[in-house]
Design a protein that fits this description.
three-stranded antiparallel beta sheet, binds flavin-adenine dinucleotide, two-stranded parallel ribbon, alpha+beta
Length: 396
């Protein structure tokens, strides 16, 4: 499902998890588990040179089930895009999740489930959808008022079943569905559960709140001169080019079809905008007021988290922006009701605007300048901050 980019969370971010009341989740605690998953294949000397990689990469694990490697195919544009940025700070290549010998994509299924399918204590039921958790002791709390999950109710082939756990239940249904399953099981805000006739077992105001996503801004699209010496993935739209690439891939597992995008830019607002300090100052007050105005029903963890985020916003060492173009269609039964909290804080649109202007500036610097024929989107009719933020430009 994902773009195969293997990027680890940063030290400051993982340490913040622990600070928020999760002992054992600091950087030093989590990294050994990430290394345990990794089976890193070192890049060739040519790739080290082409992608400007560190020659030694000792921080990756070598014996795990998830193969990692650097894509050997370079379109040429990756290096070109790095040059105008001057410094490499915040601009780097990450390995991708594939086996460089078989040139096969590696997924959690291939790495963890497939090799263990004949184990007697593993049973996977695809297409089953969990409806809710069921509880031990007939849904009664223990002496400390705690409930213990004892299994799940799930739907399979249109029928409802129950699976009891011998030991424990791990709920890992993702950002949207995990809170939904908790709510369907009676854990959450009473004002959400009561109207749905779901008995409230645990009044927990943080469940289903505080969704923070990184907005995907369709920033700026350039068309290259036809004679530019670069091969983009767009070439695959041409049936003749596709056929050639397919043949090359089938015979030698090379060419555009073996390409993975591994270059990433994580940048602070300070490094993409001259107005960063002014914008941050403006919004720190807004966020501080919001934190101060939160009442006793707000989860304590949320307040602490916002305090930490406020510190991070001011820290130029930490990234605020990343661009991810990801056109996609996803479908899933029983979608949860969801408020994406999009642009809840004015700073978010300010950051996206600055990020957009920064990305557009690249067209004015060599070596991109001489290979770009024109800007396709949004085009020169969108120039001022008002136009960039305006409704006519489908920015988000
Ligand atoms: C398009 C896209 C590209 C991405 N690219 C990258 C990338 O290159 N690198 C990277 O590091 N991250 C990437 N990410 C983010 C990454 O995929 C997620 O952060 C990660 O998958 C989250 O893992 P998870 O286990 O929390 O949840 P998920 O991976 O969402 O797993 C949850 C699972 O629970 C199942 N489920 C949900 N509800 C139920 C139910 N009721 N019953 C039974 N099963 C259920 C779902 O089917 C799913 O399999 C990308 C995300 C997207 C959307």
């Amino acid at each position: 499902m994902n773009q195969m980019a293997w990027t680890r969370p940063g030290r400051i971010e993982l340490d913040a998890w622990e600070k928020l009341g999760n002992p054992g989740w600091s950087y030093k605690d989590v990294i050994p588990y990430i290394q345990k998953a990794e089976n890193f294949h070192p890049p060739s000397n040519e790739t080290i040179k082409a992608k400007v990689l560190a020659a030694e990469q000792p921080w990756f694990g070598k014996n795990g089930p998830i193969s990692l490697a650097f894509c050997e195919v370079s379109t040429g544009l990756d290096e070109t895009i790095r040059k105008p940025l001057g410094e490499y700070t915040g601009v780097w290549s990450c390995p991708s999740t594939f086996d460089p010998v078989k040139l096969e994509r590696i997924t959690a299924f291939k790495g963890y489930i497939q090799p263990n399918l004949d184990r007697k204590n593993l049973f996977v039921l695809p297409e089953a959808s969990v409806a809710k958790l069921i509880w031990k002791n007939n849904s009664k709390p223990n002496g400390n008022g705690e409930f213990t999950a004892g299994g799940v109710e799930f739907i399979f082939g249109g029928k409802t079943f129950v699976a009891h756990s011998a030991k424990e239940v791990l709920l890992t249904a993702g950002t949207l569905k995990s809170p939904q399953i908790l709510e369907l099981s009676g854990i959450g805000r009473p004002d959400v559960l009561n109207p749905l006739d779901i008995p409230v077992l645990i009044d927990l105001p943080g469940v289903g709140e505080n969704l923070q996503d990184h907005y995907c801004a369709s920033a700026v699209v350039f068309e290259l001169h036809p004679d530019a010496a670069y091969r983009t993935i767009d070439l695959l739209h041409d049936p003749v080019e596709y056929e050639k690439s397919e043949e090359l891939y089938k015979k030698k597992q090379q060419g555009l079809l073996s390409f993975t995008n591994s270059d990433v830019v994580f940048a602070s607002l300070q490094s993409v905008s001259q107005d960063a300090e002014k914008l941050i100052e403006l919004h720190v007050k807004d966020l501080t007021d919001r934190i101060a105005s939160m009442d006793e029903n707000t989860s304590k963890g949320l307040k602490e988290q916002l305090d930490l985020q406020l510190e991070r916003l001011k820290d130029p060492r930490l990234p605020t922006v990343e661009l991810i173009p990801a056109p996609q269609f996803m479908d899933f039964p029983n979608p949860p009701q969801l408020d994406a909290n999009a642009l809840e804080y004015p700073l978010e649109l300010d950051i996206l605007t600055e990020e957009f202007k920064f990305a557009r500036k690249l067209r004015d610097y060599e070596p991109l300048k001489s290979i770009i024929a024109k800007e396709i989107a949004p085009g020169d009719n969108v120039m001022t901050d008002e136009q960039i933020r305006g409704e006519d430009f489908d920015f988000l």
